Amino acid sequence: MAQMLSLKSDHHWSETCYDQTSQFFKGILPQDNIFLDIFYSMKKYMEELGLLSEHIDCYVNGFMIYWGDDINMESCKFCSHARYKTKLNRSKKERKKVPFSRKIYFPLAPRLQRLYASPTTATHMRWHAEHDQEDGVICHSSDSEEWKQFDRAHPSFFSETRNVRLGLSADGFQPFGTTGKQYSSWPIIVTPYNLPPWKCSKGQYLFLSVLVPEPKNPKQKIDIFLQPLIAELKMLWEVGVETRDNCLKQNFRIRAALMWTISDFLAYSMLSGWKTVGHLACPYCAHDHYDYNLSHGRKTTWFDNHRKVLPANHPFRKNKNWFTKGNIMTESAPPVRTGEDVFQEIQSLGLMKITELGGAEHNAKVIKAYNCGWKKRSIF
Question: pLDDT tens across 84-103, in order?
């Protein structure tokens, strides 16, 4: 039955096709067989594998999700909109409550535990620490300076090579195309970087964690749908979960760390909270920028902005022909801001998370008062 579900997924069978094929197999098997020939019954049976999904009720406009402390609320805490709508059942004799919208969350911890259930996969999860590294060559993320700096900063995490380093990717797409119904779907993908480079980019190791149910771009409200994932990432970092390593035949407590987020510039704004449009679009230069508007279209351009990051004696700095006509660059690059610097800046501005009550209204006042590039305090 597991192979049948795999065939349905690989070849895009309809439910009708699946049911008819299953009924054919059941008919040619001995009469006392227990093969399930209905797709719905098959799904219920396969839930025993343990990789379940959570359906979480949402407000129709994406203001909140009914999860955690708010799971029993009957209306939106931001605008008092009802959580449910009433709908007649098939017999049309009684009404039932149906949520206006739902999101799907796929728990991450069981999927990380499953990586150690197979001896082969469990061996590959230690590849990042056991492969031969050549000086000056980066063949895997573990060869990068960021990875090594993280190991030096967190020796307890580094001491267990089976702990998982994660990357998170977010992007939107239109499943109906640009000419069909305008509907934007936003999947959040989490992938483990312990695996070798020829495996960590395979489809079976790209874990769909959150599926945002918005018909429109969630924009800054994407943090609302990330709440279950962030809570689980914090649990995996601070506590971990007990896991069986079938390769080494021992139990251990697996922990996980989110190393990177991967996105385009628009999704970068949604995840980080820095607006990537207008005169403050560059997150590195921030207020120390050199940009101007084009003469006709008035579009903002940074044509000469990043020439200042070149070395002081670079010939491009004094070139008056290839860049802005007659202009030389004498300015130096702004100092690189650390994570602590960014965090202190957000705290000094008093920005709130979008998930907090009154956060959106408060952040709008802060942006207007300080003309800053930040739009919110990110959930990360």
Answer: 888 766 666 667 788 888 88
Domain that holds residue 238: 113-269
257 with 338, same domain?
no
Question: Same domain for 213 and 351?
Answer: no
Contact 244, 117 (CB under 8 A): yes
pLDDT at 211 over 90: no
The number of domains in the chain is 4
Task: Tell me what pLDDT residue 208 has.
Answer: 92
Residues 130-149: what's their mean pLDDT?
89
State pTM to two decimals: 0.85
Asked whether residue 128 falls in the same domain as residue 244, the answer is yes
